[in-house]
Specification:
This is VCBS repeat-containing protein. It comes from Mucilaginibacter psychrotolerans. By secondary structure, this protein is mostly beta strands. The protein has one domain. 0% of the residues lie in helices and 50% in strands. The protein contains no helices and 8 strands. It has strands at 2-4, 7-9, 23-24, 27-28, 31-38, 47-53, 57-64, 75-83. Strands 5-6-7-8 form a 4-stranded antiparallel sheet, with no helix packed on it. The mean pLDDT is 80.
Length: 84
């Protein structure tokens, strides 16, 4: 949740459901990590880098505030994946 330009915004960025709903192939995501919070795009609003991991893979996503637009706090700007 955040107040952006006077508007209260509630945005879910990443989650694990009760059934561990995020999958890459047959490998379920079992961990989500916040790797970095800081102002990457220079707009004085925090940006986030989040990683997730399963048994045979890992991926990292960059979320930026500047391109999020109205009704959002962050927008996923890039993904980097890795398999074991």
């Amino acid at each position: 949740m955040a107040k952006v330009k006077g508007n209260n915004i509630n945005q879910l960025i990443r989650s694990l459901g009760n059934d561990v709903a995020l999958h890459h192939g047959n490998d379920a995501v079992d961990n989500i990590f916040i790797d970095f919070i800081g102002d990457i795009d220079g707009d004085k609003i925090p940006d986030i880098i989040i990683s997730d991991a399963g048994y045979a893979f890992g991926s990292t996503s960059l979320y930026l505030s500047k391109p999020a637009g109205d009704g959002a706090i962050l927008k996923r700007a890039a993904d980097f994946g890795q398999s074991n």
